[in-house]
Design a protein that fits this description.
By secondary structure, the chain is of the alpha/beta class. The protein has eight helices and nine strands. It has two domains: 151 residues, SPOUT methyltransferase, trefoil knot domain (Alpha/beta knot, 3-Layer(aba) Sandwich), CATH 3.40.1280; 63 residues, tRNA(m1g37)methyltransferase, domain 2 (Trp Operon Repressor, Chain A, Orthogonal Bundle). The relative contact order is 0.14. The protein binds adenine.
């Protein structure tokens, strides 16, 4: 899978996407991330990428021309499954969107800054708008890094058995159960006995029970989805 990310701050994306599982995915040839510096597409000495809002009001808006120049160049090179704009008024990112996008080939991602991009760019090019939560970041880069991480680790072949996403929270509309490692007793607190029993069936049942309990207590919204899907 290939991500092309358009940004005014490529530095913000370099480190988060070059470590751990993202690095492994790239090393395995399963993930490519290409960063495109929007200023390279802005004309003039000042390489201006933003301008005042029509109608007045605080905050600058990202100009359409440099964005369009960069997007058109990329579109001419390959087809994209989605042109994604990271924005707080987009669809909230969840595991389901992550799963769906992990099956795609080429994704373009626009990172907004200031007050966002000129609305006409959204109208003309954007096919999917994604928010990572109900708060406002100073730019779309950290949100894009989250998106690449969520999607990247779900690409078939990126995770091995040990890191498998199958048992992640949200993967089946349940939160993950609690986990323990050695020592078996720490500060007087013992690991639940069933986990030391060696009985795989009992362990599976215990984990499922814990997942159900956690989900009901902490995320009744997700619990409803789970309970609904079990009824079908
Ligand atoms: N840009 C600024 N805030 C954002 C958010 N919450 N999600 C995605 N992109 C953003």
């Amino acid at each position: 899978m290939r991500f092309d990310i358009i940004t005014v701050l490529p530095e913000l994306l370099e480190s988060p996407l070059n470590h751990s599982i993202m690095k492994r995915a790239k090393d395995k040839g399963l993930l490519e991330v290409h960063l495109h510096h929007l200023r390279d597409y802005a004309p003039g000495k000042h390489r201006q990428v933003d301008d005042y809002q029509f109608g007045g009001g605080a905050g600058m808006v990202m100009k359409p021309e440099p964005l369009s120049a960069c997007i058109e160049k990329l579109l001419a090179e390959r087809p994209y499954d989605e042109v994604i704009y990271m924005t707080p008024d987009g669809k909230r990112l969840d595991q389901e969107i992550g799963n769906r996008l992990s099956m795609k080939g080429n994704l373009m991602v626009l990172c907004g800054h200031y007050k966002g991009v000129d609305e006409r760019i959204r109208q003309k090019y954007v096919t999917l708008e994604i928010s990572i939560g109900d708060y406002v970041l100073s730019g779309g880069e950290l949100a894009a890094a989250v998106l690449v991480d969520v999607v990247g680790r779900l690409i078939p072949g990126v995770l091995n058995d040990e890191t498998s996403a199958l048992f992640d929270s949200f993967q089946d509309n349940l939160l993950a159960p609690p986990v323990y490692t050695r020592p078996a007793v720490w500060e007087g607190m013992a690991v639940p006995e069933v986990l030391l029993s060696g009985n795989d069936k009992l362990i599976d049942e215990w984990r499922h029970d814990q997942s159900v309990r956690r989900t009901r207590e902490r995320r009744p919204d997700i619990w409803e989805k789970y309970a609904g899907s079990e009824e079908e």
